[in-house]
Write a structure and sequence with these properties.
heterodimer; A: 568 residues; alpha/beta; 6-stranded mixed β-sheet; 5-stranded mixed β-sheet; 27% strand; rod-shaped; B: 113 residues; alpha+beta; 7-stranded antiparallel β-sheet; 2 helices; 18% helix; globular
């Protein structure tokens, strides 16, 4: 049988995550049958659940119970506590199919909260019924806070779990009722699932969900009383049963022990509180179902093993107390069969979810949207905020862009201005150089016309001026060719150098020094100099004596003859 | 935010209050409580309620399909736009109702605001 299942179907894992326990059922499904390969029940201290390690403890337990390979290859059917949900049976007039979602939405808004953007909900139509002659539609919805669902999603994401179905735990039992071959499908059943700190009471009419309640009351209420009154710590249900029974026996034998009486009284009164809740549920069901009675009351969870509690529960309610039988369409691996049979009350819910059908309530699809949209959810407020933010961003980008554009333009024009400045300077420089060249060219042409060794003469003139702050304005060389003697011999070649002294401090010294240099060059003779200042004309002798500190622009003219001969 | 707070569902804060003047009478208002304690609650309703007026309330918590039936007396009624903010004090609360209310409020108080 095992091989047949293994060959035919993919492994499915039922996870029932409670407030302080986890049930893991590893199975394969074939048609209406489930074959259970392995099962795990792990409790963790309810203090852990309260101390902030809930998510990490759940992750640890799942990792211990399911190998990474199994996680990768299996589909998970997950149940989370019904107390995390708001679950209601609702009715509405018989309306067209298309109008049903809006009608359900209105009901959810009425029962849960006006702000639907903070919750996920899912519903299932149960069918038509008649009330006071009018046809009506009946449905059940479940709603959960997105934040709460996100906490579980974090665990599944961390472990890489592929969640095929996610539902409230009471729907595990509902599935079990729907598929199990029960003796009487129409009877009304109340399931009392007593866990460590909480008790879930759920009522089903046949396989139809009617109501669910969560009462913050569980096994711990009894163990706490024992510990406070007798200082005995009940670690297990057996301990609690033994202690409760022992207290009763001792009390009966000894007759009147005040301390024992008090302990028993407290234990019994706690049990009666739960019994009153059961009674309230029975009465409420009687009212809303117009006179129906609960036919059978089934106790599940750890609390189902506290014999004295179950005894007290059954007394006032008058209903038949029962324990859940293993459905015939569930088979269990031989190694696990004994454990499964003994603790079926604990495993039943997780087994039930493995029987789920396609149209069952399933919030796994919402998990996907939560996963995708966990950073942005398309709520009206979020869309409004996003629009404002986008608009602000667009304005900012526009302003920044404009600022950047003008900055760039200014920077461009500045660089262009700098370039133009450079060009202008260069142009002036070139113009100066051109002027100089033009001057030299004119001089060159002038000399070339007059004497053949003009370059030599010119060179000597420039040598004499070199190193002085003198600016030449003109050099004139004139001479006549001696046609009779030789073509190359000139007569009466004269020169006139005109210019200005640039440095007033040493202008006279520079002019005098130039004259002396011209004389020492050996090709100039009969040199005379005249300057023109504000104080009048000066000859060379008086020029040397003149003080350098004399102010004014000093223009000079140097005249003389060139001892011309053809140079080698 | 601790897990202690996360343990309980958040719409325990969203306590639905169904108000009527007499038991088994059609309710005149179905609202969510603005504030709640063991001794009373505050609601915003669309009709004026006189001081000392007695109401029948059904308090519905999301995780429990069965409401808590209570009797309450109007302590104050303040006009707020077109509505009225009404303070109600629970009266004649029996031991069982008191325990249910306390348990529900314990969940309520452990919820983050």
């Amino acid at each position: 049988m095992l091989n047949l299942f293994q060959n035919l179907s993919r492994k499915i894992i039922g996870l029932n995550i409670g407030a302080d326990f986890i049930v893991v059922i590893k199975a394969r499904r074939k048609g209406t049958k489930i074959y259970i390969e392995d099962l795990v029940f792990r409790k963790f201290s309810s203090e852990i659940a309260l101390a902030g390690d809930y998510q990490s403890r759940i992750s640890e337990i799942i990792q211990e119970a399911v190998s990474p390979k199994e996680i990768k290859k299996s589909k998970f059917y997950v149940l989370i506590p019904s107390s995390k949900f708001c679950i209601r049976l609702i009715d509405m007039p018989l309306i067209p199919q298309a109008e049903i979602p809006a009608a359900v939405k209105a009901k959810v808004r009425k029962f849960v909260a006006p702000e639907l953007d903070k919750i996920f909900y899912s519903y299932k139509l149960l069918g038509e019924f008649q009330e006071k002659g009018a046809k009506k539609l009946e449905a059940v919805f479940v709603a959960i806070q997105k934040d709460t669902l996100q906490n579980y999603l974090n665990v599944f994401n961390r472990l890489g779990i592929n969640v095929a179905l996610l539902a409230p735990s009471c729907f595990g039992l509902l599935n079990l009722l729907s598929t199990a071959n029960l003796d009487n499908q129409a009877e009304s059943r109340m399931f009392i699932k007593i866990e460590s700190r909480e008790t879930d009471i759920t009522v089903y009419q046949g396989s139809k969900f009617i109501l669910t309640r969560n009462i913050p009351f569980g096994v711990k209420n009894f163990t706490d009383i024992l510990q406070q009154q007798t200082h005995k710590v009940a670690q297990t249900i057996e301990d609690l049963n033994l202690a409760w029974r022992r207290e009763k026996e001792i009390s009966e034998k000894s007759g009147s022990d005040q301390q024992l009486d008090k302990t028993l009284q407290l234990l019994d009164s706690e049990a009666k509180i739960l019994s009153k809740e059961v009674e309230l549920t029975i009465n409420y069901y009687y009212q809303v179902s117009h006179g129906r009675k609960i036919d059978r009351c089934i106790v599940l969870g750890e609390g189902s093993q506290i014999t004295d509690l179950v005894e007290i529960l059954g007394k006032p309610s008058g209903v038949v107390l029962d324990f859940l039988k293993i459905p015939t369409n569930v088979e269990v691996n031989k190694n696990k069969s004994a454990d499964f049979s003994r603790d079926f009350a604990i495993y039943a819910t997780a087994v039930g979810i493995l029987f789920s059908k396609k149209d069952d309530i399933n919030l796994a699809t919402e998990l996907v949207s939560l996963k995708k949209g966990q950073f942005f959810r398309f709520t009206k407020l979020n869309i409004f905020i996003a629009s404002i933010a986008t608009l602000a961003l667009a304005i900012f980008i526009l302003l920044k862009g404009t600022e950047l554009y003008f900055k760039n333009r200014i920077s461009y024009f500045k660089s262009q201005q700098e370039k133009l400045k450079d060009k202008k300077i260069k142009l002036v420089d070139i113009k100066r150089q051109l002027d100089k060249l033009e001057f030299k060219k004119n001089l060159y042409l002038n000399l070339k016309q007059n004497i053949p060794d003009y370059s030599y003469v010119l060179n000597k003139i420039f040598e004499s001026i070199a190193g002085k702050d003198l600016a030449l304005t003109s050099i004139t060389i004139s001479g006549q060719e001696n046609k009779e003697k030789s073509k190359d011999i000139f007569e009466a070649v004269t020169f006139i150098i005109e210019g200005s002294a640039l440095n007033p401090e040493r202008s006279r010294l520079d002019i005098t020094q130039t004259v002396l240099d011209l004389e020492s060059s050996g090709i100039f003779e009969n040199i005379s100099v005249s300057t023109k200042t504000d104080t009048g004309n000066l000859n060379i002798a008086s020029l040397a004596k003149q003080s350098d500190s004399q102010s004014g622009v000093l223009n000079f003219t140097i005249k003389g003859n060139i001892k011309f001969r053809k140079l080698p | 935010m601790s897990q202690e707070k996360r343990k309980f569902i958040r719409w325990s804060k969203k306590v639905r209050v169904i108000c009527s003047f007499k038991e088994n009478e059609e309710p005149f208002e179905e609202v969510f409580a603005e504030d709640i304690s063991e001794s009373g609650l505050q609601i915003v309703v669309s009709r004026f309620l006189e001081k000392a007026q007695v109401l029948k309330l059904k308090l519905e918590f999301g995780y429990d399909s069965i409401p808590i039936n209570l009797t309450a007396r109007v302590v104050y009624s303040i006009t707020e736009g077109e509505k009225y903010r009404v303070g109600l004090e629970f009266v004649d609360v029996d031991e069982f109702q008191e325990r249910r209310l306390r348990q529900c409020l314990e969940k309520f108080l452990k919820e983050p605001k």
